Amino acid sequence: MLDPVELFPEVPNLYEFPSVHADMVYDERRVNAYKRAIDSTVKKGDIVVDVGSGTGLLSFLCLQAGAKRVHAIERSPVIKWAKLLAEKNGFSDRIVFHNDDARNVEIGEKADVVVSELIGHLAFEEGMAETIADTKARLLKKGGALIPQKVTLHAAIVNEKEIYDSYINGWKNVCEIDYSVMREKAVQQAYVTDISERDLLSRSMKIITVDFSQTNLDGYINTSTFTALRNGFVNGIALWFDAQLSSSVKLSSSPWTKTHWKQCFVPFDKAIEVTMDDKLSISFELKFRVYSEDSFLLNVTPLKRSRNA
Questions:
Q1: CA diameter of the chain
Q2: Which tens digits make up the pLDDT trace of 223-248?
Q3: Cβ–Cβ contacts within 10 Å for residue 107, how many?
Q4: Ordered domains of the chain (ranges, CATH)
Q5: 261 near 126, Cβ under 8 Å?
Q6: What is the DSSP string of the chain?
Q7: Cα–Cα distance between 157 and 239 in angstroms, integer?
Q8: What is the rounded CA–CA span in Å between residue 167 and residue 183?
Q9: Phi-psi region of 274 (alpha: psi -120 to 50; beta: other; left: phi over 0)
Q10: In the list 65, 101, 126, 265, which could disulfide-bond 120, CB 3.0-4.6 Å?
Q11: Residues 45-82 pLDDT 10s
């Protein structure tokens, strides 16, 4: 098993590593889903904005689908690779590159379609909701199309063994030196890993759905109650997303699919014993990056267990 990726804090300059883009470019489920959505949405002669364009793949797919022009917006230095790829593949005359934060970009025209793949492992931590809301308001024609249309974050209670044993409870004293502080830090992270169906101790629940046709960045605070499907120990929450790319195309990172996103595991400080049909109430708090200096926030807190009578 590869070491899990800790989502918080973020890795500086993460997208300047070619290997990160290879994971995305060669994720067949991701690429095929976006291609189907683009082919069914982009019409000949359309103006398209690609937000967070990376190496340019979605921009190129839009041009293949008949777009007249694509504005590829990418704030990181990876845009220089996208320019080389555009030249290599004969797209340069129909693509305009903008090396800036999308909220600072003006394109001098209105777009028929806005496409974006700023979907993070936790769906929203890469600033997708805020960026699409701003781009839609400023750059999209009235009645224009969005890809994706909406994204839903799902959760289920789990008993996850590998990460919890190795990266949470693995922090033990060394040479009589107390390392418990590191466990306290480790339990505050979210981990990207493969969650299997056998790890799940409940059915999944929808935590939040963001519909990009509406502008609502108020965040989310609510409590969800999960019902245990069997006896076990709940040591955290599994999280994944469903993205409705178009009316007929959905992309999921659930445990029943295989994508580069995998799933996320958010550990609890202590495992909670449950028996079949017990109810476990958990608080979820999510805040978006409304302003550039804001940080994405996700708090997951177990509140109360109700025993099955």
A1: 70
A2: 999 999 999 999 999 999 999 999 99
A3: 16
A4: 5-149 (3.40.50.150), 151-306 (2.70.160.11)
A5: no
A6: -PPPEE-SSPPTTGGGSHHHHHHHHT-HHHHHHHHHHHHHH--TT-EEEEET-TTSHHHHHHHHTT-SEEEEE--STTHHHHHHHHHHTT-GGGEEEE-S-GGG---SS-EEEEEE---BTTBSTTSHHHHHHHHHHHHEEEEEEEES-EEEEEEEEE---HHIIIIITT---BTTB--HHHHHHHTTS-EEEPPPGGGB-S--EEEEEEETTS-----EEEEEEEE-SSSEEEEEEEEEEEEEEETTEEEE-STTS--TT-EEEEEEEEEEEE-TT-EEEEEEEEE---STT---EEEEEEEEEE---
A7: 9
A8: 8
A9: beta
A10: 126
A11: 999 999 999 999 999 999 999 999 999 999 999 999 99
CB 279 within 8 A of CB 203: no
Contact between 115 and 54 under an 8 Å Cβ cutoff? The reply is no
Residues present in the chain in total: 309
Q: Which residues lie closer than 8 Å to 10 by C-beta, 6 or more apart?
A: none
**Residue in this structure with the two tokens 């063994």, named with its chain if needed:** 161
Burial class (CB in 10 A: 0-12, 13-18, 19+), 309: exposed
Inter-residue contact 66 to 96 (CB < 8 Å): no
Tokens of 194: 């493969």
Judge contact between 4 and 193, C-beta under 8 A: yes
